[in-house]
Structures are given as structure tokens and as C-alpha cells.
Amino acid sequence: DTRHGVILYLDSVNVVFDGFKAINNLTLDIGVGELRCIIGPNGAGKTTMMDIITGKTRPSSGTAFFGQNIDLTTLSETQIANAGIGRKFQRPTVFEAHSVFENLELAMKADKRVWPVLGARLRGEQADRIGEVLETVGLSAQFQRTAGLLSHGQKQWLEIGMLLMQEPRLLLLDEPVAGMTDAETERTGELFNSLKGKHSLMVVEHDMDFVAQIAQQGKVTVLCEGSVLAEGTMEQVQNDERVIEVYLGR
Ligand code: ADP
């Protein structure tokens, strides 16, 4: 089985909008536990690729598999989220009027029939899970704080925590450090490095210093005009003539 150890597998994917090929014969795979950085100029197809993975957009042709045999092109967005793919858009979307703890509580995978009693008395294991996630995202000290009062970076970490409550196998993150301070950016890098292995991550990012921090020995994929232009270590792609041309030629 050629897909062994692969969490995400796109093969010859095409997306055509009114005759325009936004995704052009895109083939890409991500290993279980991998942290993959995706870079590329505006219009390269990064958002459209994530839309395909999450079922928001259907490919005109090609295949997209999650794990060994989950065909993403046949599932709804909800089914894909339930299968274990979490997506974080660029802007933070937390429940501003609720506390950090309540935000994580609301994000918890729960049997809807027991939902009304959750707020009243949280079962021990559920509180433990929230505690774990608070620790992971570095917000333990802020658990009672109203989410609306958090810094931009803290809101982003909270939203990542909300995704983690769903126990996703694959996390898609769109420009997670945009608007963050340098200190927040560095902490986010540490967070991602701590998540890889346990989760698989696909991070779309324009901040090259951040990409260098999280890519380390991992792979960076450069998208351009809907296809993979280059793939390799940060050093390899930075020294790739075609990549230099695309970035300097803008
Ligand atoms: P990126 O996220 O890398 O900036 P996108 O995936 O947003 O790139 O866009 C890829 C290309 O597809 C762009 O040229 C964009 O204008 C085009 N595109 C994206 N969505 C649509 C749409 N719904 N209809 C028509 N063209 C689209």
C-alpha cells in the first residue's frame, strides 16, 4: 500500500472556476504526524486547496483521501470535520463574551442529549481534558478570563485549543501568526512543534522567519499557479531558482 503512513493524499486534483484553473493537477501527500508548511504567492491556490480538503469546494477531477480510505470528495464539510480534520481560518473566532474555560467547554465533542447538563456539572474526565488543552496552548493562568479581553495571540491560541478539544488528526491553519507580536509568533512556533507527532499539521504562512522556525528539518511545499512548484527543506526551497523567480518576480 503506497499510502501507508500518509494522513492526506491529493492526486492530480483540478479545480476550474469559469474556465480558470485555480488548482492545476495538484499532487501532494502529508505523512502521519508531519508538520508541513505551505507557502506561495497570492493566488497560488492555497485557500482553494484547503477548501477541497474540508469539502467546501469539490475538485473538477482528481482524488483526495484522508487516512487510508476516507474519500474527501464524497463527504460533507460536517462529515469531514467529524472524521478528524480541523480548520482554523486566519482571524480568531472565539466566543468573546465567554471565559476561556467556557470556550473550550463549548468546543468539546459532546453528546447533544447531555449538552444541557454540561454547564451545570462537568464530568471529571471532561474537566481534565480542558485542563490538558489549557496547558498545551499556554492559557492555564487565563482560564477564567473573558475571551474578548485576551490579546490577539491569546485568542488565536484559544481557538487552536478549541480545535484540539475535537481531537483532530489533521489541523489546517491559515496564516496563524498574522498580526501577532514577535514573542507571540515564537510561542506559536513552540506550540506547533509540540503538536506535531501527535497531530498532523498543514500550515499556510507568509511569514518566512516563522516558517523557518517550524519547518526545521521538515518539508516546505511551494504552491504556484495551482501546482506544486517545489518541495523540500526550507534551505532547498529558498535556494530553488524557480522559487526565487516567483517571489522576486512579483
Ligand atoms: P491563495 O489562497 O494562494 O491566495 P486562492 O486559492 O485564494 O489562492 O485562489 C487561487 C486562484 O483562484 C486565484 O486566481 C483566485 O482569484 C481564483 N479563485 C478562487 N476562488 C474563486 C472563485 N470562487 N471563483 C473564481 N475564481 C476563484
UniProtKB/TrEMBL annotation:
GO terms for molecular function: ATP binding; ATP hydrolysis activity. Keywords: ATP-binding, Nucleotide-binding, Transport. The keyword Coiled coil does not apply. InterPro entries: ABC_AA/LPS_Transport, ABC_transporter-like_ATP-bd, ABC_transptr_urea_ATP-bd_UrtD, BCA_ABC_TP_C, P-loop_NTPase. It comes from the Bacteria. The keyword ATP-binding applies. This is Urea transport system ATP-binding protein. GO terms for cellular component: plasma membrane. It comes from Lampropedia hyalina DSM 16112. Residues 8-250 form the ABC transporter domain.
